Amino acid sequence: GGAYPFVKEWFVYFGNPLQQPELIQPVQPIPGGTPNLKTLWFAKGPDVEKQRYSTFLACFHLQDEMEELQALEAPVAAFCCLLAYLMMQVSSLSLEDLNAFVALVLCLKAKSAAELASLQLAQVDSRGVHLAAVFVRGLTTLLMANSACGFPFRMDDLMPWQVFDGKLFQEKYQQSHRGCSLEELLEGN
């Protein structure tokens, strides 16, 4: 009747005593049906590349944004996938948090390694450190989804150094939460 059965899954997280599995209802099938792994992993051609990409986006419930994401550079598109997914899953993220993440990815490419190394922070915000850790852990999820979907992205495009720097994130996080203007936050980018 269109209903999907519940699945028993064990989740490790703070406060879970792991005495019994949680009952989770699977997500609806992705548009076009479940892709064949042999096709995703071994087939070649533009249709397969498109299917790999759309399957990857479906992992993050973003398949409807395929056209917009394909217009971006691969590391930025992957960053946006993770950020959109986090925004959907974590209710405590604020507009200032989102602005800090976006400013990070847009300003990072313009910074040299020397500039990043010379960043000085007066203080470090513990919530900013926590958000950074959640984001970097999310990159692991991106890597796994990329592998499962037949590598629609080059692995190098998903490496943390392509899209993340802890000190720069702290700076953008603090600027955003101080009410800094978007133009200043984005450094004119």
From TrEMBL:
It comes from the Eukaryota. The keyword tRNA processing does not apply. It comes from Nestor notabilis (Kea). Keywords: Receptor. This is Constitutive coactivator of peroxisome proliferator-activated receptor gamma. One of its GO terms (cellular component) is nucleus. GO terms for biological process: fat cell differentiation; peroxisome proliferator activated receptor signaling pathway.
